[in-house]
């Protein structure tokens, strides 16, 4: 067996199952889960219709590079969303959701024969695929903390110079999971300068880019590069997905875009990896990327939901409206002494509400776990269910102090 598999840690949801083992929540309260970030809003009917209309494509092997109409749908969307002009033949590729692409990209760009132990820099807390992708590529992971005092911006300055010298890949998540923070232009400039100096690739995970609460849409990595005159997108790959934008997590559809040289190598890897997108999925994807009305409606639903739920939770938790994404990243009351796992277990046991301990989404690094004392709540269900969960949490904190 691959010895690198032994370096992988249990996924947060497996740890959550272990945490809840032996607990029987009250039977008179229906279960409400805010633990998993799986979109629950209905899939738009026109996407389903496009999917079934494309069933004829099941009779043919799909091309790994995707058909021209699909790649054009990606570049058309990038033009509409970010005012960017990319070559559909060389600067974009379809992927089966951003998760598999994040993993595969690391296997493509990490060079274990470089003469030193390569490093992948990850935000902390983080989406666990970043860690698994790095470890299975043979690299070490350096965890750069997100700082609460800076609206959970990643502290890139905390990464030592000798770590940057060995870095081959940096994962950026903006808007962030779990914090919802959006990386500003000056932080992008900092990373681009470091990339130019050390030659590492930047993977910008942007799957939450269309769920935001301010008037200004979140800045994207490619958009930041263009604003700074980096029109070749050197050493930059952006990854996005339809899952959250269009409420189709089961479609497993997204795309990557950026540096044409990296795209060329990634296509070669994917050709052998066997990860071509089905023509049936491509048909639905073309329809989804070409329509913005359903995205505006989806965003309005989240905005109304967060506007209703956040003020309730602000009464008892350290929480505020994020920049973007569909998570609330909340600090638990002081009497719990930062024990987010104990808080989550007691809440489940007494009120049948599931939240994810923040420490499960981060690692102990540089002397602390930046997720400790926080919980992640995914407001993905309908508004009334999220409101009911919020009311129970308020009741729990007020009536059941530790």
TrEMBL record:
Q: What class of enzyme is it?
A: transferase
What EC number(s) would the UniProt record show? 2.6.1.17
Q: What is this protein called?
A: N-succinyldiaminopimelate aminotransferase
Identify the keywords attached in UniProt to this record, alphabetized: Aminotransferase, Transferase
Keyword Transferase in the entry? The reply is yes
Q: Per the database record, which ranges form the Aminotransferase class I/classII large domain?
A: 32-393
Q: What's the cofactor?
A: pyridoxal 5'-phosphate
Give a single Pfam family match. Aminotran_1_2
* InterPro entries noted in UniProt: Aminotransferase_I/II_large (IPR004839), DapC_beta/gammaproteobac (IPR019878), LL-DAP_aminotransferase (IPR050881), PyrdxlP-dep_Trfase (IPR015424), PyrdxlP-dep_Trfase_major (IPR015421), PyrdxlP-dep_Trfase_small (IPR015422)
GO molecular function terms listed in the Swiss-Prot or TrEMBL record: succinyldiaminopimelate transaminase activity
